[in-house]
Specification:
The chain is 63% helix and 5% strand. By secondary structure, the protein is mainly alpha-helical. A hairpin with a 5-residue loop joins strand 1 and strand 2.
């Protein structure tokens, strides 16, 4: 398998790990990705179609990674708000933000 084909395979496995937020799998791919990308300059140049597939797969994974980062940042902010005692918020039927009832910092109970 050429380094380009190996990288395409790795990018597909990375896509699956990103869509599942499988951080363990992502961590395991780092060394392999580093090794494969180090081999690329010494390998024959892939044909234009393969380069286009590599570019598309890398761009797709970059967008997925950014989305994952954004989601984690939003979750961290949400948790910080909860810890600070800020009320939970939602949107009313008119589209305006509303604080859910309950005292700040009160535990959330579910039935």
């Amino acid at each position: 398998m050429s380094p380009a084909d190996a990288l395409l395979d790795l990018l597909e496995r990375e896509r699956r790990a990103l869509t599942r937020a499988d951080f363990d799998a992502l961590a395991r791919l780092v060394d392999e990705k580093t090794r494969i990308t180090a081999e690329l300059p010494r390998a024959p140049r892939p044909d234009p179609e393969c380069r286009a597939r590599l570019r598309a797969a890398a761009d797709r994974n970059a967008r997925l990674l950014q989305g994952l980062r954004n989601g984690l940042a939003a979750a961290a902010l949400h948790l910080a708000d909860l810890r600070a005692g800020h009320p939970l918020r939602t949107y009313g039927s008119d589209g305006q933000r509303l604080a859910l009832s309950g005292a700040p910092g009160a535990p959330i109970r579910r039935a």
